[in-house]
Each structure stands twice: as structure tokens, then as C-alpha cells.
Design goal:
Elements: E1 9-11, E2 16-18, E3 30-37, E4 40-44, E5 48-55, E6 58-62, E7 65-69, E8 73-77, E9 83-87, E10 94-102, H1 104-115, H2 119-124, E11 139-142, H3 147-159, H4 169-192, H5 199-218, H6 226-233, H7 237-248, H8 252-270, H9 275-281, H10 287-298, H11 302-306
Antiparallel strand pairs: 1-2, 1-3, 3-10, 4-9, 5-8, 5-10, 6-7, 6-9, 8-11
Length: about 300
């Protein structure tokens, strides 16, 4: 069924096809699937949006801030007066997308539910809504790193089958919002660990640490310098070190090495590369250094696992 979306915009709530992206209204929910080429597109940010890019790449500009986007990323965008713009960078390739656009009513109902102190308050006011704003941390995230991302990816895969037509779009949207919320509860709990900052500053620091976290995983096959992470996250070296360790329990350097060694183990067990090739694939110019880090991580040399 994936070919059904080629050069076509299918909206699942209305079960209608469009020649272009619908004009999103704040009082309606949308679930749109499309696979098409864009030189440029521009959408209002007046509603909460959750976008999943299965394949393709380009530049995404949110409220004037440009970010690169590529395969298997999802984007969380809170309501504001700005815009989401996409530029294809002249790559002339199709982008395969699933987009949720959440109405103000559903967002406010969900915010009320998520912030309710107990079940009694929900029963006393079953149709309550909150206008306190979005609970979500905005950003571009790798689907493989989060439970909500994996759920979105599984729904995308289902959208390519006939089963998708039998699924309720309202329930799909609520399921995705609930999963994202649970992920973000974990993030907020992590943010609380950041010392000597008020809550709003902790949350802003968390956003920047998540940018560094995503960068590490997207570039694990490269040599990653701490100065590079500091620039990417817009945090000083000390602030990055302190906040990252508070959230993940290890320093950025330790985390990078742990991830590289985990990847190395996978490569070794696959048996497709020599140890020298694996070291180079993970950004190490010195096989001895690679071996020492591997042994420090696992307690034995990589050659032992290789055998």
C-alpha cells in the first residue's frame, strides 16, 4: 500500500486524498501520510505537530532555527505563532512522511489529564481542559532512541498495509501523545537531577543535553570532541559535563566510548570486518587505543570476542 501515498496526500481522519498538504485548522485533528517531492513547504505552527520522516533529507526551519533532518527522525513542534519550513537542498528526492496535527481541544484535554493530581479530579470534571500550554519538549529525535519513536515507526509501518484503514485515527493520535508524554516524564525526572538551577532552567538545559545526545548517536562512527558537543548544545564545556553526568550518570566522554564499544561488539559478532577496520569505522586511528578502551569497558580484549 506504500505506493498509494506516492505523490498523494492521504488524510486518515477524513479518509480523503489531496493534491497538496491540507490547510490545517486548530479545531481539527489530522493524520496525514504522503510520499512526494518538495522543493519547499511551509506550514503554520498554530497546532501541536508530530512529524515522522521515514526516508528523505533536507533542512527543517522551526521558528527561524535551521536543523538538518534525515531518515527515521521524528519532530515535536509546540503551538506558536511561527512556521515550520522544509527545504530539500536541491536533492530532488521524495520524502516519506507521517504527520499528526493535534487540535487545541484534544491537546488541552490531554494536558488536563496528564497534569491531574488524582483520579477523583478527573471524575469530578470529566470534560476538563487545561490551557496551561504544551507539556512537550520540542526537538528533532531519532525514533530508535525512545519508546514513543519506536511506536510512531510501528504505526508508520502499519500505514503501509491494508490494516491501517481499520484503525481509528483518534485513538492512534492519543496513543502517540500518551507515549510521548511518558518519555518526557522520564526526561523531566532526569532534568530534576541537574544541580543548582530553577526548574525552567533545568528544562532548557535538558533540551540542550538532548541535542548533544542525539548528535552522539547520529555520529557514533566519527571521532567526537567535547568541544564539538559544547558548540552543538550551546553549553559551556563545564555546564555540558556537569548536566550530562547528572542525567546519564557518566561523563560525555565516557558515554561516547560506551556507545562506541557497544557498536564494536556488534561489528565483531557480525564477523564482517577485521579489528582494524572496526576501529577505523568507529573513528579510532590507533588500534591500540581502541583495544585498551574495549578492555576497560568489558574486562577482556576485543580479539577474545573476535575469536
Amino acid at each position: 500500500m506504500s505506493s498509494f501515498y506516492k505523490n498523494n496526500f492521504y488524510e486518515h481522519f477524513s479518509r480523503k486524498n489531496y493534491n497538496s498538504l491540507p490547510d490545517f485548522r486548530t479545531d481539527k485533528n489530522y493524520l496525514v501520510r504522503y510520499n512526494t517531492k518538495f522543493d519547499y513547504s511551509k506550514s503554520s505552527k498554530k497546532s501541536l505537530a508530530i512529524l515522522y520522516l521515514n526516508s528523505g533529507f533536507g533542512d527543517l526551519v522551526i521558528n527561524g532555527v535551521k536543523r538538518k533532518i534525515n531518515n527515521e527522525k521524528f519532530i515535536l513542534s509546540n503551538p506558536s505563532d511561527g512556521y515550520i519550513e522544509y527545504f530539500d537542498n536541491k536533492n530532488n528526492k521524495s520524502i516519506d512522511v507521517m504527520a499528526f496535527v493535534i487540535s487545541h481541544d484534544l491537546q488541552n484535554e490531554f494536558t488536563f489529564y496528564a497534569s491531574a493530581k488524582n483520579a477523583n479530579s478527573l471524575l469530578d470534571n470529566p470534560f476538563g481542559k487545561s490551557n496551561d500550554g504544551s507539556l512537550l519538549v520540542e526537538g528533532i529525535f531519532n525514533t530508535h532512541h525512545y519508546k514513543s519513536g519506536k511506536l510512531i515507526q510501528s504505526i508508520f509501518k502499519t500505514s503501509n498495509s491494508s490494516d491501517f484503514q481499520t484503525m481509528c485515527p483518534n485513538e492512534i493520535s492519543m496513543q502517540v501523545m500518551q507515549s510521548i508524554y511518558l518519555d518526557q516524564v522520564d526526561w523531566y525526572n532526569a532534568a530534576i537531577k541537574i544541580p543548582k538551577q530553577k526548574i525552567s532552567t533545568k528544562v532548557e538545559t535538558l533540551k540542550r543535553i538532548l541535542t548533544a545526545y542525539e548528535y552522539i548517536h547520529d555520529n557514533i562512527n566519527k571521532k567526537i570532541e567535547i568541544e564539538e558537543l559544547s558548540k552543538i548544545s550551546s553549553l559551556s564545556g563545564y555546564h555540558l559535563f556537569n548536566a550530562f553526568k547528572a542525567i546519564y550518570g557518566v561523563t560525555p566522554h565516557q558515554y561516547i566510548n560506551n556507545q562506541k564499544m557497544s557498536k564494536a561488539s556488534t561489528y565483531i559478532l557480525e564477523g564482517k570486518h577485521s579489528l582494524t577496520e572496526i576501529a577505523i569505522l568507529l573513528g579510532f586511528n590507533d588500534l591500540t587505543v581502541f583495544g585498551k578502551i574495549f578492555k576497560k569497558t568489558y574486562g577482556y580484549s576485543p580479539s577474545r570476542l573476535y575469536k
